[in-house]
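=== RUN LOG ===
request id: a7f3
mode: sequence -> structure
chains: 1
length: 268
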Amino acid sequence: MFEHFKEDIRCVFDRDPAARTFFEVMTTYPGVHAILLHRVSHSLWNRRFRWLSRFLSAFSRWITGIEIHPGAVIGRRFFIDHGMGVVIGETAEIGEDCTLYHGVTLGGTSWAKGKRHPTLGRDVVVGAGAKVLGPIQIGDGARIGSNSVVVKNVPANATVVGVPGRTMSGDTLARERQRHAIAEKMGFDAYGVTKDAPDPVAHAINCILDHSHALDAKMEKMCSVIKKIDENFADIKLPELDACEIAPLTEDKFDEKTNLRENSTKEG
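=== RESULT ===
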């Protein structure tokens, strides 16, 4: 058990850049306190000291804000970052090297006895506010996005986002990266704007980004075809979005860039 204690503390330095010293981690990290107390309460639970283990678990919740049932099975090098509001049910099983953030719930969906909480494989990361519910399996290396609600099995090395949680394929991840890049060029923050976000504004923004990307691709294809037909076709390169001026063009800039006002005056 003491070897587990050492590993639980050492892993903090690998996953939290704010951690500086062993003494700081031992005295100021509620996630570490909750894990250490759970190791003791789980040992008491297995030895049939049920009331004492539950009392120690309740004491741990009181001082850390983290509720872990003493019956939960937790692997080595487990880390809870920040921790407030984390709930881990009685029949939950957590593999080695897993990380949970604040507000995570590993809960059940039934009042029946038996296995009713999720099982996490190795090296699983569950983002802040996520809810993983029911006797489901989360594969090794899976990533669950913040505020997701997961009620189905998740394959290994998958990324799950949204409500309800949906597994993001390689094509979806590539599209999300493209959206993020276009959004940054347009000058607004695309943080948290995902395909499955339950927000009509976010959905509308995603549609605009996809439409803009499709128009760019179509225009480039049309220009390449026209250039093959007419070698003299002037292929004007559009300025980068992040290089465009946000302020409207002045009259001088209008004349300088387009010369339309000058020509229309001469013709008149």
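=== NOTES ===
The chain has two domains: 2-168, 171-267.
Residues 2-168 form a domain with the UDP N-Acetylglucosamine Acyltransferase; domain 1 fold (CATH 2.160.10.10).
=== END ===
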